[in-house]
C-alpha cells in the first residue's frame, strides 16, 4: 500500500491528466534533446581534438616573440616621457638563432621528440590553375617522430622525398582543386621569385579540411632553396609522450629561449573558442525547454492547490503539519520530473541511434562520414539532475503557498 502522501499526490496528477501529460512531454523533450545534442556536439569536439593531437605537433616553437622588444632608450629611461619616430626595422633574415643548440637542448628533455622545419608560402601552377599553399620543409626521419604524416598518405611515401629530385607531397584538397595526381610535374613559385619544377610523390588526407586544402611538404633543404633562406629554420615541432603537459612545457620553453612557443590548444584556439560558444548555446536551449516545462508544472500544481483548498483545510484539521502538506505538492513535481526523465532517456537513446544510422559525407573543420557521436552515462546523469531539480523547484512555490493555508480561514471562507 502506498504512503498516504504519495497516494494523494498521484491522485492529484491523475485528476488533471492533460496538463500533466503536457508537463511530462516538456521535461522529456528537454532531457532527450540534451542527450542527443550533447552526444553529437561532444563527439565532434572530441574527434576534432583527437585528430589535432594526432596530426599536428603538440608544441610549435616559432621564430617570433610575443611582445615587441624595447628600444635601448626605453630601457634606459623606463619612467621617462620617451617619443620615438622614424624607426627603421633592421634588415635581417628571420629564423631561429642557435637552432642547433636549442634542438639539442630540447632533445635532452624526457618524453620530448623534436623536428626542425622551415615553413613559408608557395604558389603551385598546374594545367592553367594557380593554387596558393603553405610549404613546410622537413626531415622525413625526424618528422616521423612528431607527426603521423606517413600514416595519412593515400599514395606515395615519405622516403620518396629523398629518392626523387625536387619532390613534394600535397594535401588531398590541393590535388582536387588543381586536378593534380601522383607523379605529375608542377611548377612551384616562391615569394622571392624562385621557380622549381617539382614532382608530386605523395598525396595525404588528414581529414582536417584546413590542412588538406593548404599544406604541402618537401625536403628541408629544398624549402630553404625555394625561400632563399639557406641553413635557416623558422619552426621546431615537438611531440610529447604526455600531451597534457603541452601548455606547461611550452611556457617553460618560451621563458628559457624567448621564442614564441604554442601548445596545440593555442594553435587551435579559434576552433576551441567556437566549441565554448556551441556548449553555451546547447545549455541555453535545453534550459529554455526545461523552463517552459517548469511553467507547465507550476501551472498544474497551482491549479490543484486552488481547487483543493478545502481538502487542504480538512487534511490540516486532521493533523497534517505544514511540512506534510508541502511535501505532497513537492512530491507531485518530483514525480513529473522522474517520469519525464525516464521517458526522456528512452527518447534520447532513440535519437542517438537514429543519428548513428545516418550515412552522409560531412565536411567542415573536419571531414567525417556521418555524425561522430560520443556516448556516455554522464549525459544521462546531467540531464536527470537538471530535469528533476527544475521540476522540484517549479513545484516548491505553490507547495509553499499550500502549506501556509490556515484551516480555520478555509472553513470560514467555505461557510
What is the topological layout?
Blueprint: H1 4-15, H2 17-55, E1 59-62, H3 72-76, H4 99-107, E2 112-126, E3 129-138, H5 140-146, H6 149-152, E4 153-156, H7 160-163, E5 167-171, H8 172-178, E6 185-189, E7 195-204, H9 209-214, E8 215-219, H10 220-226, E9 235-240, H11 246-257, E10 261-263, H12 264-267, H13 269-307, H14 309-317, H15 322-357, E11 361-363, E12 367-369, H16 377-403, H17 407-414
Parallel strand pairs: 3-8, 5-7
Antiparallel strand pairs: 1-9, 1-10, 2-3, 2-6, 2-9, 4-7, 5-8, 6-7, 11-12
Domain ABC3 transporter permease C-terminal: 287-407
Domain MacB-like periplasmic core: 20-255
Keywords: Cell membrane, Membrane, Transmembrane, Transmembrane helix
Largest sheet: 6 strands, mixed, barrel
Q: Using the alpha-carbon principal axes, give the shape.
A: elongated
Structural class: alpha+beta
Tally of separate domains = 2
Radius of gyration: 33 Å
Helix content: 55-70%
How many beta strands in the DSSP annotation? 12
The number of helices is 17
Strand arrangement across the biggest beta sheet: 2-3-8-5-7-6
First-residue to last-residue Cα separation? 35 Å
| Residues in β-strands, percent | 15-25%
What letter string, H or E per element, gives the SSE order?
A: HHEHHEEHHEHEHEEHEHEHEHHHHEEHH
Taking pLDDT < 50 over at least 5 consecutive residues as the criterion, the unreliable ranges are none
Mean pLDDT: 84
